[in-house]
Amino acid sequence: MELVVERVQSRTENKQYDGTPLEVITEAICEVLPVDETRKLEMEVWFAFSAKTLVDSTLGALSNKVYKDMQTGIKKVIGSLQALNLLNENVEMEREVFRLHALVDGMAMHHLLYPEQFSYDNMITTLKYHLESLCKAA
What we know:
The protein is mostly helical and 138 residues long. Helices cover 72% and strands 0% of the residues. The protein has a single domain, classed as Tetracycline Repressor, domain 2. Helix 4 packs across helix 5. It starts with a helix and ends with a helix. This is TetR family transcriptional regulator C-terminal domain-containing protein.
């Protein structure tokens, strides 16, 4: 699991993102979604690791670290929208961090388990829809 975390962090830190702010944020969040074979394998490791933490208490510290790292990344995403003055004033930052984190985890799990029903296009459209709902009207 630590290798997966390192790979994702390295990829996000070294990637050059292009596009509108929402396109860049969508692309950044896609680093932790199963949008290609590499990320699908990483998400399968995450899914298996998460299930194992339910029965193996020795994994608790690493599990908490992975969770906190994800929370930090999501907080940066929401903070970016706020810094760019795109975030609706009525969005509660802390609550939204939890909500977006849960949405991303849920979409990853649904796409892994039910790729025909929750396709790549469904996943990306849902993510974009949610991010747009957080932003001020253009």
